[in-house]
Structure formats: structure tokens, C-alpha cells
Amino acid sequence: MTIKEVCSRFGISPDTLRYYERVGVIPEVHRTPGGIRDYTEEDLGWVETAACFRSAGMPIELLIEYVRLYKEGDGTIAERCALLRKARERILAERQKCDDALRKMEYKIRVYEKAVRTGRLDWDGDDGCCNCSSPKQEE
Amino acid sequence: MTIKEVCSRFGISPDTLRYYERVGVIPEVHRTPGGIRDYTEEDLGWVETAACFRSAGMPIELLIEYVRLYKEGDGTIAERCALLRKARERILAERQKCDDALRKMEYKIRVYEKAVRTGRLDWDGDDGCCNCSSPKQEE
DNA sequence: CCTTGACTTAGAGTGAACTCCATGTAGTAT
DNA sequence: ATACTACATGGAGTTCACTCTAAGTCAAGG
Questions:
Q1: Structural contact between residues B67 and A135, judged by C-beta atoms closer than 8 angstroms
Q2: CA-to-CA distance for A113 and A6, rounded, in angstroms?
Q3: Domains contained in chain A, number
Q4: What's phi and psi for B22, nearest 5 deg?
Q5: Nearest nucleotide relative to B17: CA against C1'
């Protein structure tokens, strides 16, 4: 499979795919005799994993470390497992932050929707979710 | 409240706080007569919102736009509401990506844990979650 | 064989979001 | 008054993750 096809399948640019390979986010991709990249199913699996983990905010550095361990062979299985557990904690924390922000947004959206209906803002007091009412005209 | 205290409360550096104010992620902060920042409760609310939304991956540009609308007054309430709805969609998508990555990780972690117990890797076939077994020694 | 277009590389450039630095001022303790 | 520390500013520098450019190579059509 050509680099173009891989790109359109995963929504990544060719530059990014080559970059991932160059820095070690994915292992070396299979080539034609002429030196053109020809992705195998296994290569695709790596690309999918990289794309998936990256889009969740996992830093490139961790993926590089994972591939490095993978290349070293079965002796690194425990290490790889530990790395993935660390990554999971990161993403869980990430998701928690999304949830926190979502709660804040939902509240603000509700207040604004009510304001649009009733014609006036009505933040119910000091719940730590305010700072959306119009600025006081102090000067 | 001094900038130092605000920093330790929200885990942000003073440079970042000043940067946020400078580019408009938060409105101008109250000052002492001498020109030193002295955060009011309202200022703190803005900082909290900015920190919360930023840590969920909301781009600075959106926050700046939100503050800009806020400063314009009540006429922008519908716009602000629309902006927040757009932001919510973004964060929801973000969270979905976290969930996707987590599922992939959980699977890999399970396989590795089993490998650590049994002494050998056992990816159950072509489920699109592989690419973690040791490289085939082809050369 | 020649053109054309997609591929290759190495290396420079970009954008977002900070982060650091140099220089100067505010406020407090001695 | 002096020293010291925390704060101020404008502007330069850094980091991450790409993204682009230039110059060259591969492969298919005419």
C-alpha cells in the first residue's frame, strides 16, 4: 500500500508519516526494490496505533520509547507493559480534565441559554463557575 | 492576592499568568497603586476558567475570543453561547479520542500481563490491536 | 527515450504556547 | 538610607510536533 493510500486512510499527511518513521514513532516501513514505501498490514497496524495514541495526546517521546523496546525483543515485555500503564494513567488524567472542563461548559451554556430565553443573565451566585456575566461598568 | 499565590493555587507559572493577561486569555487583572497585580475573586474566577479549559486542550485563540465577546457586553451573549457549544463539541471529540486510545491500551496491557505470567505473548489474531509482539527475525 | 507526476532525502521553517532574560521598580526589613 | 526580594515590562528564546522546500529518483504513459 502506497504512502498516499495510508494517508487518506488515517487522515495523516505524507510528511507526518515519513517523520514518524524517521524519528522512530513507527518501525521502518517495508519498501519496494526502488526504495518506495510499500506499507504491509503490520506497518498499517503501527500507523494506526501511532495515530490513535497521538490523537489522544500521548507524546511522541513515549511512542518512540515503546518502539525502541519492541525492537529489543521479548526481554522488554515487562518494561513495555509498565510504559503502557504509565501512558494509561496519563490519558485517564487527560480524560478527567476533559470532564472537568465539560462540566464548567455545560453550566455556562445552560446559563447563557436561559439568558437568551429570558433576556437577562442569572448566574446563581458563588458557585465558582461564573465570570461570564458582562463586565461591570466601573469607569 | 499576589501573583505568587495565584500560581501555587492553580499550578501555573507567573510567566504564564502574565502571558494570559497580555494576550487576552483573561481580562486585565486588578493592580495595587504601585502597579503590582492584586487578583480579586473575579480575577481568580477567570484564571480558574482559563486553567480548566486550557488543560482540557481548548486552544488559547478560543479563550481570547470569548474574553473579547465578554468585554463587548450583553449584546454578545448568544455569540458566547455558540462559542461554548463549539468548544464543547471539541472537548467531546477529544474525550472520545482518549477513550479510543484507552481501549487499545487496555487490550495491549492485558496481553502483556498475560505474557508476563505465562512466559509468552499471545495476541489473539487479527483484531487490529496487535503490533506489540516481538519483531520477526527476518534478516 | 522523454515527459510527467508521485515518490525520495536532508534539512530548514512554522505555529502554538509558553518560558526565559535583561533591566528596572515596589515594598519590606534593618 | 540601604539592602533585599518579589514584582514589572518588552522582547528574545525554547519546545513540540509537525510542515515545507529543494534537489534528486522511480515508474508509467506516449
A1: no
A2: 43
A3: 2
A4: -60, -45
A5: C18
Residue B135 lies in a domain: yes
Q: pTM of the full predicted structure?
A: 0.90
Q: Give the domain extent around A24.
A: 1-60
Q: What residues form DSSP beta bridges with B37?
A: B31
One domain for residues A99 and A56: no
Residue B78 resides in a domain: no
Nearest chain A residue to B63, by CA: A132
Both A55 and A101 in one domain: the answer is: no
Chain B residues lying within 8 Å of A106, measured CB to CB? 88
Residues of chain B with C-beta less than 8 angstroms from the C-beta of A102: 56, 88, 91-92, 95
Per-residue pLDDT 10s for chain A (139 aa) are 999 999 999 999 999 999 999 999 999 999 999 999 999 999 999 999 999 999 999 999 999 999 999 999 999 999 999 999 999 999 999 999 999 999 999 999 999 999 999 988 888 654 455 565 555 544 3
Q: How many angstroms is C1' of C20 away from CA of B81? A: 37
Are residues B51 and B92 located together in one domain of the fold? no
In a domain, A38, yes or no: yes
